[in-house]
């Protein structure tokens, strides 16, 4: 039986979908019985979603925009 500590150790791999079937089953069995770990995993999922929503993908666009603005400003200066 997986302990709470064991579950925490597996949690990041769980969210990344990198657990073996056996590990997933152990995690699921533990979560079925343990409210604290259910809450922990839910919290972890929420923060992971927030992190993924950070505009990493927009950074190249932002940089391109910035460069375009700088180029424009240089043209204006000429
Ligand atoms: Zn637990």
UniProtKB/TrEMBL annotation:
Residues 4-38 form the Putative zinc-finger domain. It comes from the Bacteria. InterPro entries: Anti_sigma_zinc_sf (IPR041916), Znf_put (IPR027383). This is Anti-sigma factor. It comes from Halopseudomonas oceani.
């Amino acid at each position: 039986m997986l302990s709470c500590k064991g579950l925490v150790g597996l949690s990041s791999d769980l969210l990344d979908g990198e657990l073996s079937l056996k590990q997933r089953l152990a995690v699921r069995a533990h979560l079925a019985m343990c409210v604290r770990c259910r809450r922990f995993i839910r919290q972890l999922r929420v923060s992971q979603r927030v992190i993924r929503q950070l505009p990493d993908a927009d950074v190249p666009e932002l940089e391109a925009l910035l460069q375009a603005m700088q180029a424009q400003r240089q043209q204006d200066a000429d």
